[in-house]
Amino acid sequence: MQWRRLARFHRETLHGYESRLVEIGAELKRVRECAGLPHHVAEEAEALVKKYFDLVAGFPAEVVAVAVLWTAAKAAGAPRPLEDFLRCSKANERRVRRAAWRLKEAMRQSKRPSIEDYVKTLAARVGLPAAVVKAAVELLERNRRVLAGKNPWVSAAAALWLASFKKLGLLKALAEAAGSTPVSIRNAAKRIRV
C-alpha cells in the first residue's frame, strides 16, 4: 500500500517538475522573441533554469523567464535594460529583481575559490614547498567549522605558518602576501587546532 503512495507521489512530482520546465521554457521563448535576443542567450537562460531550479521554483513562470533572460544576457556580454524584458511580459518588476538577485548570488557562490586555492596561491607567493602546502590544507580541513566566516587569506596564511613550524621571518612574509598583519595571522593560528 505504501509503495503505491510513493509511486503516485513520484509520478506527480516528476510530472510537476517537467510541466513547470515546459511552462518556463514557453515563456522564455516568447520573451526572447519579443525582446529580440540571440538564440545563444536563450540557451544559456534554459541552462540557468535547470541548474538553479530550486531557487526559482517559487516564482511565477513569467518572473522566472524575465529574470533568467536578463541574467543570461548580462553573462553573455550583451546586457539589456530590464525594461526591455518587462515590456514583453506581465511580470512584476520587484519580483523579477528578487529572482535575479537570487540567481546572481547562487552563481557568485558557485564561483568562489576553495580554501585550498588560497593556500596554494599564498604558498606560491612566498615560495613554500609542496609538503608545507599539503600539511596546511590538512590543518584547514580538520578545522573547517572553526574557520567558517573568517577571512580565507588570513586562515590560509595561519595554516601555512603553523605547517612551517611558526618561523618568525615567514610570518611577516605571509602577512604581506595575504594583505594582512602578523597579529591577525597569529590570532587565526590560535583558533586552529594542530
List the main descriptive attributes of the protein structure presented here.
elongated; 194 residues; Cyclin A, domain 1; mainly alpha
Description:
The chain is mainly α and 194 residues long. It folds into two domains: 2-111, Cyclin A, domain 1 (Orthogonal Bundle), CATH 1.10.472; 115-191, Orthogonal Bundle (Cyclin A, domain 1), CATH 1.10.472.10. It is 76% helix and 0% strand. The protein is built from eleven helices and no strands. The radius of gyration is 24 Å and the shape is elongated.
What are the SSEs and their pairings?
Blueprint: H1 2-35, H2 39-51, H3 53-56, H4 61-75, H5 82-86, H6 93-111, H7 115-126, H8 130-142, H9 152-163, H10 168-178, H11 182-191
Helix pairs in contact: 1-2, 1-4, 2-4, 4-6, 7-8, 7-9, 7-10, 8-9, 9-10, 9-11, 10-11
CATH class of the largest domain: Mainly Alpha
Radius of gyration: 24 Å
In total, how many beta strands?
A: 0
- Residue share in helices? over 70%
**Which CATH architecture of the largest domain is right?**
Orthogonal Bundle
Number of domains: 2
Measured between the Cα atoms of the first and last residue, the distance is 54 Å
Strand content: under 5%
Shape: elongated
Query: Which stretches are poorly predicted, pLDDT < 50 over at least 5 residues?
Result: none
Provide a count of the helices. 11
Label the structural class. Answer: mainly alpha
Order of helices and strands: HHHHHHHHHHH
Q: Please, what is the average pLDDT?
A: 86
Q: What is the CATH topology of the largest domain?
A: Cyclin A, domain 1
CATH superfamily descriptor of the largest domain: Cyclin-like
The main pleated sheet reads as: none
